[in-house]
Amino acid sequence: MTSKRVVAKSLKDLPKIASAILADLSEERIFVFNAKMGAGKTTLIKSICKVLKVQEIVSSPTFSLVNEYTSEKFGPVFHFDFYRIKKIDEVYDIGYEEYLFSDSYCFIEWPELIMDLLPERFVQIDIAVDENENRIIQYGIVED
User: Fold this and answer.
1) Residue 131 CA neighbour count, 13 Å, CB half
2) Whole-number mean pLDDT of the chain?
3) pTM for the predicted model, two decimal places
C-alpha cells in the first residue's frame, strides 16, 4: 500500500484533512478505519461526512452496526461500527453485500473481523496518537 501521512494537531485540522483524503481518493467508496479506542475514527468520519455534505448528525453506530446518512451530492452514505460483532454471521444478517457493493460511500470502523468480506480494492486509514496527542493519519489504497 502506497500511503500518505498527515498530522492533525487539533480538531481544526480535520476539515482540511478530510477534504484532502476525499480529493486524493475521489474514485474510492470503501474506507476502513484502524485505530485504538478513542483515537478519533468517528471524529474523522464526521469531518469526511461534513465535506460530503451529509445532512444528518453523524454518530457512531455502535449498537445498530450501521447508520445511513444522505449526502446532497452522493446519495446514501453508510457508516459501520463492527466493534461489538461477535460472529461473522451478524454481518451476513445485515446484508453487507448490499452496502459494500452499492457504489455508495461506506465508512467502516473496527473492520478486523470482516476483512475477508471487503471488495478487492478499498482505502485503509490508520490513526495513531503521538506523545503530544496529535493524530497521525496515514491513508492509502489496498488492492488484492
Assistant:
1) 0
2) 94
3) 0.94
